[in-house]
């Protein structure tokens, strides 16, 4: 390009060979720099809500980011930030919020990982500790492992949590699950436990009952 101070080279994303791929941006979304993206992701990793993240970005960079924009960034967790699925594995399921946040199928992988967005599916983002399962994992085994963890962690103060998690482990160890009994038991544990541990202990179990019948029937 020519300018008043001489000629210079200017690189643009457009080229005459037609290799330019336009980026589609949905309504209420915007593109942000790699630096801001990684900042958003690190704040997300600290367990901050979308509203808090947006507030900090506004404060630090003077730009507004919508929940849709933040959601687009968290959607890149597997493929871009974690290097994709391991060779020979495909994305089957994910735990959106650690041990008690439930288990959702890959088909629901585009849900916003935000407080309030997953509760309608019996899940929550909690600590934002996302765990990915592949087609070579069995969700029944994952839910059983988590129930064993809650059985171990139960302080024993209330019966539904202390006895319920123990009974759930025994039932879940059986080859074919007794669905009505496990549904009833998980509801009782959730409804009658007095703290968050017991109230959320059956989330993985309920999700596996609902979304992964092929793994336990
Ligand atoms: S629900 Fe909480 S208080 Fe009750 S036994 Fe479980 S861990 Fe203890």
Report on this structure.
The protein is elongated and about 80 Å long. It has ten helices and five strands, in the order E-E-H-H-H-H-E-E-E-H-H-H-H-H-H. The N and C termini lie far apart (67 Å). Helix 5 packs antiparallel against helix 6. It is mainly alpha-helical. The protein has a three-stranded antiparallel β-sheet, covered by helices on one side. It has a two-stranded antiparallel ribbon with strand order 1-2. The protein binds iron/sulfur cluster. Iron/sulfur cluster binds next to helix 6 and helix 8.
Structure keywords:
single chain, 217 residues, mainly alpha, 3-stranded antiparallel beta sheet, two-stranded antiparallel sheet, 10 helices, 9% strand, elongated, binds iron/sulfur cluster
Please outline the major beta sheet. 3 strands, antiparallel
Amount of helix? 40-55%
The number of helical runs is: 10
- Shape verdict: elongated
Bound molecules: iron/sulfur cluster
Low-confidence stretches: none
Give a summary of the structure in a few sentences.
This protein is mostly helical.
């Amino acid at each position: 390009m020519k300018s008043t101070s001489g000629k210079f080279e200017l690189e643009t994303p457009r080229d005459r060979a037609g290799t330019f791929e336009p980026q589609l941006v949905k309504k209420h979304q915007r593109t942000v720099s790699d630096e801001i993206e990684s900042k958003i992701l690190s704040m997300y990793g600290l367990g901050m809500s979308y509203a808090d993240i947006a507030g900090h970005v506004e404060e630090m960079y003077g730009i507004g980011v919508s929940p849709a924009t933040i959601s687009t960034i968290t959607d890149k967790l597997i493929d871009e930030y974690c290097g994709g699925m391991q060779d020979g594995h495909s994305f089957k399921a994910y735990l959106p919020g650690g041990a008690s946040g439930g288990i959702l199928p890959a088909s629901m992988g585009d849900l916003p990982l935000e407080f309030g967005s997953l509760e309608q599916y019996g899940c929550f983002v909690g600590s934002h500790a996302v765990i990915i399962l592949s087609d070579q994992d069995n969700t029944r085994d994952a839910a059983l492992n988590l129930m064993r963890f809650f059985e171990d962690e139960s302080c024993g103060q209330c019966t539904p949590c202390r006895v319920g998690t123990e009974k759930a482990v025994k039932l879940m160890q059986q080859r074919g699950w007794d669905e009505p009994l496990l549904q009833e038991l998980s509801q009782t544990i959730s409804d009658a436990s007095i703290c968050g541990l017991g109230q959320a202990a059956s989330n993985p179990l309920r999700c596996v009952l609902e979304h992964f019948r092929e793994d336990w029937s």
